[in-house]
Design a protein that fits this description.
The protein is an alpha+beta fold. Helix content is 17%, strand content 41%. The protein has a 7-stranded antiparallel beta sheet with strand order 1-2-3-5-6-7-4. The longest helix has 19 residues. The chain is globular, with a radius of gyration of 15 Å.
Length: 157
């Protein structure tokens, strides 16, 4: 079960994550959020298995998780804590920008990504997070993510 905003550390199971995010298999890239500190920080988990559909083509005989999917897992973890922390009638978090993305080591089947997100700032409906994806305590990738909370009916002109 999950803690509500402001109640300190808590967790979000897959059912709660699916309530918060519109993503579904094969694009839901967070299995659980094991630490939630309101809207300030969180640690998400992605268990990387050989059955992931992207491994068929990336790369046959040498499966490596694409860096862009690690970034997406970071964005989903950040988005889930944004949605969990708000009481507004918002129904989606949009990924706005990525800065300073770095990929430090390959992520392969059997690895568990621990996705650390820390809020840097928030102004109205715009949130900015420092993110790291770690495997066995070592940084696999990192980035700064900016997201905007809004309605799925919002459009960009």
């Amino acid at each position: 079960m999950s803690d509500n905003a402001g109640e300190g550390l808590g967790t979000l199971d897959i059912q709660r994550i699916m309530e918060l995010l519109p993503h579904r298999y094969p694009f839901l890239l967070v299995d659980r959020i094991v630490e939630v500190n309101g809207d300030e920080s969180a640690v998400g988990i992605k268990n990387v298995t050989f059955n992931e559909p992207f491994f068929m083509g990336h790369f046959p005989g040498n499966p490596v998780m694409p860096g862009v999917l690690m970034v997406e897992a970071m964005a989903q973890t950040a988005g889930a804590i944004c949605m969990n922390a708000t009481s507004k009638q918002t129904d989606v978090v949009y990924f706005m920008s990525i800065e300073n993305a770095k990929f430090r080591r390959p992520v392969v089947p059997g690895d568990q990504l621990r996705i650390h997100v820390q809020k840097l700032k928030q102004r109205r409906n715009i949130w900015k997070f420092a993110c790291e994806a770690r495997v066995g305590g070592h940084i696999a990738s990192e980035a700064t993510i900016t997201a905007m909370m809004g309605s799925s009916r919002d459009t960009a002109d």
